[in-house]
């Protein structure tokens, strides 16, 4: 099982955007997260929501693990054909891609919730390290701090499992 984040911007080179120092443009790069559970794959198009989609996803997973009443959250795919819903189903998370024009589930997969949370932490830690290596000034950005904090909190919760 693996979780992978792939960043794409309009020119196809988000590293150049980050190197240029135009950090606001970096935070609006198109982003795709590919979730692979070992037998199925789903690509989540977070479009220009980098600044909030990963933060919302991290917060949603934190809430699912710490609050038994919080069983569902979703990420709006502004500009995308899909919104993405995360449902806790026992020991698994069901991720659904719902078409925004007809409210039909077009794609879904199941992922062990603790494995998903651990893979998300690992992926985001690597991502934060990579972007900070390319342009250390990114660490001054509020969205970077919020994501870093969310990853740290989620990692602390997972240490109890």
Describe this structure in words.
Helices cover 42% and strands 29% of the residues. The chain has 161 residues and is of the alpha+beta class. It has one domain (2-159). The strands form two sheets. The chain has a four-stranded antiparallel beta sheet with strand order 4-5-6-7. Strands 1-2-3 form a three-stranded antiparallel beta sheet, covered by helices on one side. Helix 3 runs parallel beside helix 5 (142-159) and helix 4 (113-134) runs antiparallel to helix 5. The chain starts with a strand and ends with a helix. The model has no long low-confidence stretch (mean pLDDT 86).
Q: Could you outline the blueprint of secondary structure elements for this entry?
A:
Elements: E1 2-7, H1 14-19, H2 23-26, E2 31-36, E3 41-47, H3 50-66, E4 72-75, E5 82-89, E6 92-99, E7 105-112, H4 113-134, H5 142-159
Antiparallel strand pairs: 1-2, 2-3, 4-5, 5-6, 6-7
What spatial form do the alpha-carbon principal axes imply? globular
Structural class by secondary-structure content: alpha+beta
> Rounded to an integer, what's the Rg over CA atoms?
15 Å
Distance between the termini: 19 Å
Q: N-to-C SSE series? A: EHHEEHEEEEHH
Largest sheet: 4 strands, antiparallel
Helicity level, as a percent range?
Answer: 40-55%
Number of helices: 5
- What amount of the residues lies in strands? 25-35%
Quantity of strands, as a count: 7
Strand order, main sheet: write it out: 4-5-6-7
Count of the domains: 1
What are the low-pLDDT stretches, counting only 5+ consecutive residues below 50? none
Mean pLDDT score, rounded?
86
């Amino acid at each position: 099982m693996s979780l992978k984040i792939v960043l794409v911007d309009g020119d196809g080179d988000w590293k150049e955007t980050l190197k240029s120092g135009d950090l606001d443009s970096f935070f609006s790069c198109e982003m795709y997260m590919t979730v692979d559970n070992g037998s199925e794959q789903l690509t989540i198009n977070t479009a220009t929501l980098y600044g909030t989609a990963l933060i919302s996803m991290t917060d949603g997973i934190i809430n699912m693990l710490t609050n038994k009443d919080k069983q569902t959250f979703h990420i709006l795919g502004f500009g995308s054909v899909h919104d993405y819903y995360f449902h806790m189903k026992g020991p698994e998370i069901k991720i659904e891609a719902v078409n925004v024009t007809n409210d039909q589930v077009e794609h879904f997969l199941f992922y062990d919730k603790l494995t998903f949370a651990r893979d998300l932490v690992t992926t985001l830690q690597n991502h934060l390290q990579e972007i900070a290596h390319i342009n250390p000034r990114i660490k001054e950005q509020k969205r970077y701090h919020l994501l870093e904090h969310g990853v740290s909190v989620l990692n602390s919760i997972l240490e109890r499992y």
